[in-house]
Fold each of these.
Amino acid sequence: MTVYERKENESVSDDIVWHNSAVSNKDRASLKNQTPVVLWFTGLSGSGKSTIANAVESLLFQLGKHSYLLDGDNVRHGLNKDLDFSNAARVENIRRISEVANLFVDSGTIVLTAFISPFVADREQARKVMKKGQFLEVFIDTPIEVCEQRDPKGLYKKARAGEISNFTGIDSQYESPTNPEIHIHTSSKTVEQCAKQVVEKLKEFGYLDVSS
Ligand code: ADP
């Protein structure tokens, strides 16, 4: 059994206790004049998660807000490079990402995650790791035909040729969010319009201006 196949909530040792730091999460957040939150982007491969998340980060930067993007491919190069695409490893992939996102939120940062995260149960699991109000599901809603036409990494072509198996939308299911906090339809919009829509929602929900 690999370490990541331990049961949920099972720790290696009972002797590990959480340390509270002298500077609180509230202190760190107020210094940044923002309310930290995780923007959990979900959508098919090629739907635009990374592209829009990057554009949102640029807009937030211009507004003087502190953010960090956890991108699927990048995380798999380091922290999660020991994980394959089996079901157990996919669950562990999401678990580690949500724990890392939670630490970033504790640091006062607005976190953006860009992973397909196709299953409702896994996204709900991620939501549970964060405190109430610190998790916003962002559905990047793009029809599969459009994603396949874009095919920015040539993955649909490979999946159709049978070179990749368990490919979401083709031979693995994508469970669409039923009630996402932010819902973006990309096919009739530019990247900039989609990113602006996300930032407007953040403003509307009160995450960007704490002092005013
Ligand atoms: P994902 O991260 O969901 O796999 P990517 O962001 O890597 O998707 O790729 C999306 C592709 O679609 C990019 O090549 C991007 O330029 C293109 N694209 C076209 N229109 C849009 C749009 N409105 N929003 C996001 N991406 C778009």
Amino acid sequence: MAKRPEERVRELREAIRHHEERYYIYNDPEISDEEFDRLLHALERLEADRPDLATPDSPTQRVAGRPVEGFDTVEHVSLMLSLDNVYNEDELKAFDERVRKGAGLGDTPVAYVAEMKIDGLSIALTYEDGRLVGGATRGDGIRGENVTANVRTIRAIPLALRDGPRGRIEVRGEVFLPRASFLRMNREREDAGEPLFANPRNAAAGTMRNLDPALVARRGLAAFIYQLVADRDLASVSHAGTLTTMRAWGLPVESHWRRCDGIDAVVAFCREWADQRQTLTFDTDGVVVKVDDLALRERLGATAKFPRWATAFKFPAQQATTTLLRIDVNVGRTGAVTPYAVLDPVRLAGSTISMATLHNAEDVARKDLREGDRVLIEKGGDVIPKVVKAILPHAAGSEPWQMPSACPVCDSALRRDEDEVVWRCENTSCPARLRRSLEHFAWRSAMNIEGLGSSLVDQLIEQGLVRDFADLYQLKASELEDLVVAPREPRSERARPRKLGKVGRNVVDQIERSKRNDLSRLIYALGIRHVGEKAAATLARQFRTMDRVLAAPVEALQSVSEIGPVVAASVRLFADEPRNRELVERLARAGVNMTSQAPEPSEQPGPLAGKVFVLTGTLASLTREQATEALERLGARVAASVSKKTSYVVAGSDAGTKLDKARQLGIETLDEGAFRKLIIKGSAGL
Ligand code: IVH
């Protein structure tokens, strides 16, 4: 007998959460991205058929609503403290002595928990009856910004706890960008001509403050939780117990923590991880050492800034010296030619380094780096280290480095605009540019063609099967099945050159599927200079079709909010090039979607323009997202928390503290009936 929709929805949600945990918490997925998407789509379809089953904590509801105008300020339930630092083992032992003295324990060893110090930004999450209702940044420790909509997009964070406690709890932790997401993001920014983030921490902080949750969702942020703030004794008498309980609730707790009996075990842990940290998928700059016994913590208390029961052991700087053998250049998708250092291989913090970035020719000149120099290198947030400086004197007989005058791949002359630091290869059919362009076209945030990685792209170019994006859509499964692809870095027996076979067929399926993408992805995938994901989404939403984007005069492009003169000029330049027009036409003829279905920005101020609504509790006849959409269609803004700026609070059943706050502030509240009347009246233009 077929399963009831209620049961199927429940099963799908459980399965989706299970796979989110495998992927985002354990980095050990059990299914492919495509299979995961299939589960999510199945759930979306069921919820579309049965809107009464769509709840705000459904995984389909992670990205809801449109960009917000700004973040409200929220007050933390208790001060969000920072940590004191120690920089070596002696200081760590001194911390332990202070703890033992403060506790009156004499020589008795204290039990600690040692955890990774995650290099991100702190976050406080509120759950009410097990449902995620709020997320706030640390701010000044007293007040932070309400970033709930962005937090909801982070798949490591559960929207609903598993067997979590009733009532209201707050958990705290760190939002961060895994290294792989950081590298991808910077590569995309570099290609779009946008400034790069210096390290994953800055990138995470920048992303978290973005006003468009849909963009935040694509950035690949993750989170770890390490603290429970509750006014009741909920979890345990020890921190180790709290971590275990929080993990059981489904919260992302970083798994490498260890309970240590006494400071010597803590020191051993710190030594171990100073090297091993490179094996982690995220950046850590130290170990946080915390007293395990919660009652003892209470007794030790805090200074104005730091708890006395915890400290952060900072790992020593990751620097080394080696010889700069050569300076080579790399050609990017936009033709940008950037220098990089080829180094005499050297061990640094757990890995062997043989290359380092050198941002641009000016950077090399400023540091006066010369081939043959001894250089100081450093691992920052990025996995690729950078050259800090040359150790003088320079190598005997060395000369200042000069940018080559021709492209190392196609030999065309390199050019540089007066106001730019970047040199470029202007040959649009340079093989190096084509290779990077195709990789970008296939990226997850662009056309999302799984399986079309760099080795396959290399082969497609080499075999003459693909000369531009449109050629991808002419590929036949039989051609790809027979293609022999050599892995980039052969590491094992399995990595020998092999026929693609079934993988090739899957790639053709993926290419076929990509035809249905929204216009915003295509605009981004085309790799128009300065047009990043966000600008592409804005253009698609505003102009709706590719024809209209390409026909828009610079003034029309620039009049779109968030599209500046640089982006507008770049789009025009792209559209004016006949070869680009022809490319777009061939893509259209191949069946690639040239339209956008994204919600249209309202041109006229709606009848509820300027009004701010807050939704609380459950509405019987529509989901929170449907209510939000209806309000936004009428020009209203939906905020996550109640403030003096709130115009109305819509209270469904089980409305919580937001309703209390509205009453305190004397804000008008609407029950479901009154709310529906308002929407119906507004939609009829009354
Ligand atoms: S505990 C009252 N644990 O580091 C103690 N903090 O430099 C609260 N951080 O503000 C912090 N990983 O944002 C704790 N495992 C961890 C951490 C961690 C990263 C951050 C946190 C804190 C900052 C202090």
Amino acid sequence: MKVRVRFAPSPTGGLHLGGVRTVLYNYLFARAHGGDFILRIEDTDQSRYVAGAEQYILDCLEWCGLTPDESPVIGGPHAPYRQSERKAIYHKYAAQLVEQGNAYYAFDTPEELERMRQDHRKDEHTPAQYDHNTRTKMRNSLSMPEADVKALLDAGTPHVIRIKMPENVNIHLTDMICGEMTFDSGLSDDKVLLKADGMPTYHLAVVVDDYLMGITHAFRGQEWLPSVPVHVMLWEYLGWGKHMPHWAHLPLILKPDGNGKLSKRDGDRLGFPVFAMNWTDPKTNEVTTGFKEIGFIPQAFVNMLAMLGWNDGTGQELFSMDELISHFSVERVHKGGAKFDYEKAKWFNHQYIQKTDTAALLDMALPFVEKELGHTCDKEQLEKVIPLIKDRCTLLTDFWAQGHFFFRTPELVEKAAITDKWNEQKQQFFTTWSTALASLTEWTEQSLEASFNEHVAQQGIKKGEVMLPFRIMLVGGKYGPGVFAIAALIGKEETIKRVGAITG
Ligand code: GLU
């Protein structure tokens, strides 16, 4: 049987890194087994639908290099891949379930449902939910005479279809990660399967589509575990029990202190991204920064995510996509939650910057540098700058932070470090040397250093006394690669100008 997996997001907003990790594990599993990876958009909840979120998900997958084999855009043998376009299919199965007695019509108004919840809150022994305890007291096709039900349906009375969860069944599941699990069917409520607006809920749609699309293995977050009993019952009721996919419920990604699930708010609070790419809320226009825009290389982001809840047991941390595909195994996915560590995430990016060649880094860094410059950047210059500063770069944004002075005269942020200890001798040194520079014929790192050393010796000044001032003149601060390499790259005119800014 061919392996078929799916990522089934609801287009409700930005894609959390946990979502990308779910995609990744699905993808690795599919590729390792020569299977198919399907993207299905679960957009049946119209109240949560957010315009632009589907395109955003597609863009994120593309950025990460996790391309589906079948999707709403690519199409495929089971199109459409957008649940809102598959309404008629779900109606058929909802009707079948009612027919079989496994589901029923419910006519309760929101007020009646609220009253039921209020009444039950007084009774601490049973949960305030629509289930075997309460359904007989509600207005549905199990509690009402058939003729009344028919009359209500004929009159077009708004109604939903609910699953009839059995009261006393032990539901078993062998999860690829969590192992053997047993659920008491009586604890689940009679979930709505088909809503009054004619749309299925997630529960019905996910089961129907996983079956029709031939899904063999399904990876999703552990937050979906409470839905398992309902899903297993639906697979059974629809007569597809033998075809149910093998489930893998992934551990949660936790806050850095391990205290609960990592949320967007934690990212805002602690100053790191949680979404894969920038997400602009269409209602408020508020932008949430993503890993892409903060300067992560997609391969580093993916590698880091792979390690959030999995390892291959050898201590290896850096894996190419091909290596991830060949090393990944569900057996080694951790059962417990994985703490997100932003410092570690940055470590991955730093490693990737070091092992990426200049030509590739040039393409990656260019947009970040041009954004800061506000105009196109001299690519040849950037190509020469990259090898000089890459070891100081952790994020792609650092190519500007560590290299801006190659493109623009810097602000002398640490000018005081020069002027506080300025004296006649230093003034003399830089004035003379700068005149000598004007007539220097060969402008290279080596010739500049030789000329500098020569003047130091001639004037009897300590090299250490003038090196730091020279650095600050060129860079604006006490950082950066070798001063002569900087001067060589910015050129004669600019070097003399920067020295002149201090010496006058
Ligand atoms: N639509 C669900 C979500 O938004 C999919 C859960 C599942 O994979 O079954 O995450």
Amino acid sequence: MKILVVGGGGREHAIAAALARNTTTEIFSVMAKRNPGIGDIAKNVLLVKETEVSRIVAFAQENKLDYAFIGPESPLEAGIVDALEAAGIPCVGPVKSAARIETDKAFCREMMEREGIAGLPKYRVFHSSPEAEEFIQNYEGDLVVKPIGLTGGKGVRIMGEQVDRSGAIEYVRSLNGEAVLEERLIGEEFTLQAFVDGTHLIPMPLVQDHKRAFEGDIGLNTGGMGSYSMPDHMLPFVTKSDYTKAIEIMKAAVAAMERAGQPYKGILYGQFMNTAQGPKVIEFNARFGDPEAMNVLSLLTTDLSEIVHHIAEGTLLPSHVSFDAQATVCKYLVPEGYPESPHAGEVITVGPHSNALLYYANVEKTGEVLVTQTSRTLAFVGIGETLAQAEQAAEQAASEVKGRVRHRRDIGTDALLEKRIAHMKELR
Ligand code: AMP
Ligand code: GLY
């Protein structure tokens, strides 16, 4: 099989590595900047922006590719799946109209409401700044302000935490009133990713990401600083009943898309807030999470190339998907100053890391020299029988990296996990 991987981050390195575990699969890559990890795996690389749809389709046709796996959201929004499928190349990833589940937050909320899907927070969609401003002025309690379109996970402002009322008003004004305003949910976040073939949904292990830049969950939101998963594929602050509800919500979303004549095919990512009342949907994404892809794909024991085939054919079964019963901890190294003013162009040196997997992201490699860029640099994934073992493996590798990069030492530690569990106990 010849499979195109679109995207050049840590997530796409993990996708390419998992696909390539099938030795009969040949990987082709499209990415804006050369990811050295993907570069080593791929038979052929096209360096263009992931939204350059017609050039990507031409590359796929020239190389007679069988399937494409779309990593990031921006090419989905640009209609890459529509174009590749029109050229006879089936994709893991939804067509543009179905990707609206992520790319249009108003579409997502309105679909959940229309279909009576559980886990919907109180929300209002606005297209006018004066109306949104008035709503904020009169709202009692904390609100979350979300731009309707894509923001790379960095566009959300939480009133009562990151901004006050006048800051929220200023923010909706800067968005020309194109915003979803919703109640601020209190709880613990978790990620549930699933393979979806249009009809069937097969879940992956639960993961918890860490969005904030610094230890103790302070600082700005980032693309994600790291993430962990547990040997039982659950999280200790998510009960069996919470989990069942989350799965039902995801299945209801897939069924709703199918009923609306926009069957959803690809990876469905559910970002949930586990609240006192159970899981609520923060958002759906139309792709793997980055970093969360690295946790789950490092544990996948079945063949991802085969899964791609079954997603394309609509024949996905639970027996096609299985994961090792181990814990994972993923830690991203990021340039100093990330995310506001990242130090790019710094030489870094990776130390011994034989106990962890290395996934490259936004980093240039010339010979053996690695140079930072403006986004997340590279990640280590530790795998172990226990969370502590996985954490030690990732931490050891991350702390051996020399140069102007940093990482969150607290991700995957028992102390942080205890804090999450205690928070959930306090809420319930
Ligand atoms: P998003 O871009 O929707 O993933 O939001 C980024 C982050 O903002 C989430 O991971 C949450 O931490 C936070 N967030 C988004 N929506 C809400 C909400 N309704 N209540 C509380 N926090 C939220
Ligand atoms: N890690 C969050 C995301 O990929 O959106």
